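Ticket #4471: structure export looks truncated?
Reporter: QA, pipeline team
Priority: medium

Steps to reproduce: submit the single chain below to the structure queue and open the exported record.
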Amino acid sequence: MKNWIISILCVLCIFACQNQTETNMQDRKHIEYLNEFSNFLPDYFFDQGAWFGLQLLENQLGIDKALFLSDSLGYKSKAPLLQLMVLQNEQKVNFNIVNKFIPGRLVQEATNDGLNIILQVVYEDHQTALVSYEMTNLTNAATSIELNIKTPSKNGRYTLSNATVDFELDEKAKNLVNGTFNSTITLQPNESSTRYLTIRHRFNEDEPFTDFSFENASAILKANQERWYGYLEPYQKLSANKKLLAAKCIQTLVNNWRSPSGLYKHDGLFPSYYYSYFNGFWAWDSWRHAVALSTFEPELAKNQVRAMYDFQDDQGMIADAVWRDPAIYKPNLRNTKPPLSGWAIYEIFRVTKDTSFIKEMFPKLQKYHQWWYKNRDHNKNQLCEFGSTDGTREAAAWESGMDNAVRFDSAKMVKNNEHAWSLNQESVDLNTYLYGEKQYLIALGEVLNETEFVHITTDELKQLKTRIIDRFYDVEDGYLYDFNFETDQKIKIKGPEAWASLWFKITSEEQAKNVISVITDTTHFNTYCPFPTLDASHPEFNPENGYWRGPVWLDQAYIAIVGMKNYGFEKQAEEMKNKLLANAEGLLDKKRAVWENYDPRNGKPLNAKHFSWSSSHLLLLLNDEINSTDRSQKDTLH
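Actual output as written to the record:
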């Protein structure tokens, strides 16, 4: 009996050892892979929806001035958040310090002949940054280490404008004098010891902190590593530079993630945390973010959609943009944005198969879809126009998303009802998006077995497709243009609005061939950095100062590339995509940010960096390379 028990224990011991070995090997695999992407350095590091961003001190152990976004504008702390001063055997020591940014964490390594310190920073949640500092004695003798951890507080609490920051240390270092924590430890030869502290942010002292225990610190670090490995693992099969680009895009998206606060009831993404004028949520940005997020963080994708539908009014309209603090910026209800939420909702369902989410969103999507025809169809011909609630042409152009596009230069406003005005031109992209949204409504309605509430038939789809081609396609030019219904003339300005017809397969094979011939023509859109937002031969072409009058916007490039592939022009699409990735300056460079748009003449980055929707569409293009299912859902929906 005794031998039998011993045998069982031996087997269990072998099993445990094998499992531990496999776990260690897996950990090493994850660490090695994440280290491949080290040193893409964002200006500030955020994660988990935090409203405060961190960066490491240069040439000194610690965390530099932080960026706080709590007032919707963004401001820096006046002093570094943490400064670690080290005494070894009561003597001040100097270190060789190396800073690294690894996906999901900041890492700082300080080394001299006798001591190694590795400081790591990860976010446990939107309120809490966990800082670990592992100290290793590199000598053959016991050594005494004194750490003085200086904070900008006097009592462990740092109060800023509309924000409070609390500093807490584990039980091994509770001594606090004038904002400096003191910690003393003796390390035996080659011994290591790890200590922890937290930086916790909230908007006011009445706001409760989430639960946190230092006993879970090592598990938090491991969970962070596993989460980020999970984000990046699918891209291992890509080439090295495209794998790097995928990591950079995901990091950009996560950096712009904000948790619920103020007017925000759900998580969502800023276009760019780095610019105060982009510290808000925009409607069509949100739909684009959600599609990309669905590929690696689908719950966040759902909340990004909810975050904007929280601002749907009784008529069905969704606000153009909303900010956390209405005392600084009120929600913009002068206009909405192009109807792409159906795409986002369908893509989230395609990934998650979550019918409860569809059931939640379906009536809201249907109401928004119907709103367009009630308020943006001036002559009731089932072709809509961009417009505004205040009658201004400025807001109507904003509604298109292409604020200063040349196609709107001569547009005028017409009144539809007491709260709705339209431009006097029907837009090809708007009506194509609405055509696509009808398909999404039909498909989602079938999932819920609620087709009787959709009121959209296949005959209606065919009629709308015919109406779009008859109205916007120009036989002579082989291109699609907006239409002025007062002059009964097409507005013959070649822009990316025509490319949506390829994305949703509105055109015939011959018509698509003609449109693609324009896109691939170096005179028009096949520029050094391809897919400009205005025909390069147009006299108003002005990329450097034009915003929508020439710069390359990556959302429009994505639409064109997918559209070309929809019609079998795979080779041309791949050539132009690779040309874009190679010539948009810095896209494939580890240390360069993703920008809002790019100059088609030379590839120079333009406007805002750390831009979310650029990252979203780049990530979708990379996903197209590793997945057989086209992100436009051409096989399922078109």
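Status: closed, not a bug. The export was complete when the record was re-opened. Leaving a note from the reviewer for reference: Residues 248 and 570 are 26 Å apart (CA to CA).
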